[in-house]
């Protein structure tokens, strides 16, 4: 009697990846879940699918993942027996040589999953061919099935003709609208003139020493894009709380000094200005993720979820040196290089501009000089990965004049811009608009 051949699968590989998750390597779990949206379908065994669903639910809820939490989750759903029982759950961590190998296992399971889908698709196409389906319809069915199985494997490189036509369209539009920013405007006219706006996939690094206004500058840009341009903005805030940042936004938008907001010593006219500002901010498509001690893997997963949910036009990260590496390294330089490279790749993947804040080394302060690219803290990779680098510097701490030195501009000239910083209300303006104040 002929034995029916099973579709491609690997039970040991499925056990290994589940064991990796249960070992509690949260960064690896988050990375795998963010990169493989159909991971549940990768599992051939139904018991493993049930275990994985419990792991995914706990991860999404930011709860710890281990044998006990997964067991409780399955018991609560009445599916512990369908998942093999407690004894089987306890055996899974021993099947994983390391908790960090989950991404490798996921890719191998994906290959087996695609093979199973190909076999199923071929069977469907074969049945259509035997049923007398026309060749045109049959070819369309084959192409549709293949694209559904692995769309990322389909050719997606445009030909040069298409690229040239796209560039010509951009050039003609720029000629037609001379002086108008084609990219995402920042609200700072001098910066928009220089850069022509922020472009999709760009990584804009704003560097400054502590207390010189890098968070304020990024918040001003985010406020402009969300409120004035009405485009969704995501902020991953690693240093301040979401409430602290919102208070700064209220002060900046209303023009009421933050000290008066916090002390309650408000003037009569402050209430009207606050009402208008609060309404504009409350309606804005601005989304703040208040995170602390986040790894680069968790940051990328958070950014992808925000982008899927809100269709972001801009993402701000405050700030780079507070992002932890996925795997600790003896060299801080190597860690920051990995984080910087990952952020640039994320900007390209999401196809939106990203503003990332960075600390500067103290050497320029010690030497009493304006900071340069070499002062970007911990790694020269930050300079290499960035498309734009703006360095903030106050020549005279007693005056509100601030230099924004565009020290790197991949698509244009470098230039030093002059801004005025209104410290009481956390607001930057172009200096030529406020000559008396400066």
Task: Provide key terms for this protein.
438 residues, alpha/beta, DNAb Helicase, Chain A, Rossmann fold, 2 domains, nine-stranded mixed β-sheet, globular
Q: Would you write up a description of this structure?
A:
By secondary structure, the protein is of the alpha/beta class. It is 50% helix and 12% strand. It has 18 helices and 9 strands. It has a 9-stranded mixed sheet, with helices on both faces. The radius of gyration is 27 Å and the shape is globular. The model has no long low-confidence stretch (mean pLDDT 82).
Shape: globular
CATH architecture of the largest domain: 3-Layer(aba) Sandwich
The first-to-last residue Cα distance is 92 Å
- Unreliable stretches (pLDDT < 50, length at least 5) are none
The CATH C-level name of the largest domain is Alpha Beta
Specify the CATH homologous superfamily of the largest domain. Answer: P-loop containing nucleotide triphosphate hydrolases
Q: Largest beta sheet, briefly?
A: 9 strands, mixed
Radius of gyration: 27 Å
Number of domains: 2
Provide a compact summary of the structure.
With 438 residues, the chain is an alpha/beta fold. It is built from 18 helices and nine strands.
């Amino acid at each position: 009697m002929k034995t029916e051949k099973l579709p491609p699968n690997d039970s040991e590989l499925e056990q290994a990846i589940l064991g990796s998750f249960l070992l509690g390597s949260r960064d690896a779990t988050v990375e795998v879940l963010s990169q493989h949206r159909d991971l549940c379908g990768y599992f051939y065994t139904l018991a493993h699918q049930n275990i994985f669903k419990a792991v995914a639910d706990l991860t999404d809820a930011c709860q710890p993942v281990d044998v006990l939490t997964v067991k409780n989750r399955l018991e609560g759903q009445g599916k512990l027996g369908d998942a093999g029982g407690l004894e089987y759950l306890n055996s899974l961590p021993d099947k994983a040589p390391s908790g960090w190998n989950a991404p490798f296992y996921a890719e191998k399971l994906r290959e087996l999953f695609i093979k199973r889908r190909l076999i199923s698709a071929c069977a469907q196409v074969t049945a259509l061919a035997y049923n007398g389906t026309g060749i045109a319809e049959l070819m369309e069915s084959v192409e549709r099935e293949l694209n559904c199985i692995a769309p990322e494997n389909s050719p997606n490189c445009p030909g040069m003709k298409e690229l040239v036509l796209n560039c010509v369209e951009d050039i003609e539009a720029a000629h037609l609208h001379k002086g108008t920013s084609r990219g995402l405007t920042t609200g700072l006219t001098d910066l928009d003139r220089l850069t022509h706006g922020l472009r999709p996939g760009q990584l804009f690094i704003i560097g400054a020493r502590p207390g010189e206004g890098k968070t304020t500058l990024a918040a001003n840009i985010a406020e402009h894009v969300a409120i004035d341009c009405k485009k969704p903005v995501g902020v991953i805030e690693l240093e301040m709380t979401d409430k602290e940042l919102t208070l700064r936004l209220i002060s900046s938008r209303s023009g009421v000094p933050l000290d008066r907001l916090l002390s309650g010593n408000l003037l009569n006219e402050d209430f009207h200005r606050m009402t208008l500002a609060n309404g504009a901010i409350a309606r804005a498509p601005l989304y703040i993720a208040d995170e602390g001690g986040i790894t680069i893997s968790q940051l990328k997963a958070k950014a992808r979820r925000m982008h899927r949910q809100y269709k972001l036009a801009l993402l701000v990260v405050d700030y780079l040196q507070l992002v932890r590496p996925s795997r600790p390294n003896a060299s801080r330089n190597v860690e920051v290089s990995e984080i910087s490279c990952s952020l640039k790749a994320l900007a390209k993947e999401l196809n939106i501009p990203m503003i990332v804040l960075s600390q500067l080394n103290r050497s320029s302060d010690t030497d009493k000089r304006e900071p340069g690219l070499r002062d970007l803290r911990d790694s020269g990779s930050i300079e290499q990965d960035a498309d734009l680098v703006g360095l903030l510097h106050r020549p005279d701490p007693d005056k509100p004049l601030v230099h924004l030195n565009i020290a790197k501009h991949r698509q244009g000239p470098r230039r030093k811009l002059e801004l005025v910083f209104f410290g009481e209300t956390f607001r930057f303006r172009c200096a030529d608009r406020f000559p008396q104040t400066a």
